[in-house]
């Protein structure tokens, strides 16, 4: 089995910083798909690196799904603990602009299972500089 790609902290910060204007103001034109995908993948891989494990699956369709947080390992079928959101909401969470509680309250983040909300303990992953 091939090794999982990991996220370089400098590349992760740069990828999120490149989208900072759009993250601060959704009226800005959306970023190119390749830039958005890179930022989402790097931040999700960062979460998997800082919170290793396989008890929670974080899904950011269509770009990535990662398993994280130590505990009972999930192997087959639907995982019992899932956090799923869209790419912009994920980056807002990863950058600390939006909290897990607030994202869940507005329906932008769907949590299933008793442990899915634990991702909030590991966020934010990067900071978005004030513009």
List keywords for this structure.
4 strands; 4-stranded mixed β-sheet; alpha+beta; 131 residues; 5 helices
Provide a descriptive summary of the structure in words.
There is one protein chain. The chain has 5 helices and 4 strands. Strand 1 and strand 2 (64-68) form a beta hairpin. The chain has helices at residues 9-17, 20-24, 33-50, 87-94, 100-105, and strands at residues 56-60, 64-68, 82-85, 109-112. With 131 residues, the protein is α+β, with helices and mostly antiparallel strands. It is globular. The termini are far apart. Strands 2-1-3-4 form a 4-stranded mixed beta sheet. The mean pLDDT is 91.
What can be said about this structure in brief?
With 131 residues, the chain is an alpha+beta fold. The chain has five helices and four strands; from the N terminus they run αααβββααβ. The protein has helices spanning 9-17, 20-24, 33-50, 87-94, 100-105, and strands at residues 56-60, 64-68, 82-85, 109-112.
Specify the overall morphology: globular
Largest sheet: 4 strands, mixed
Distance between the amino and carboxyl termini: 43 Å
- Discrete helix count: 5
Computed structural class: alpha+beta
Integer-rounded radius of gyration: 14 Å
Secondary-structure element sequence? Answer: HHHEEEHHE
Query: Low-confidence spans: pLDDT under 50, at least 5 residues?
Result: none
How helical, in percent, are the residues? 25-40%
Topology of helices and strands:
Elements: H1 9-17, H2 20-24, H3 33-50, E1 56-60, E2 64-68, E3 82-85, H4 87-94, H5 100-105, E4 109-112
Parallel strand pairs: 1-3
Antiparallel strand pairs: 1-2, 3-4
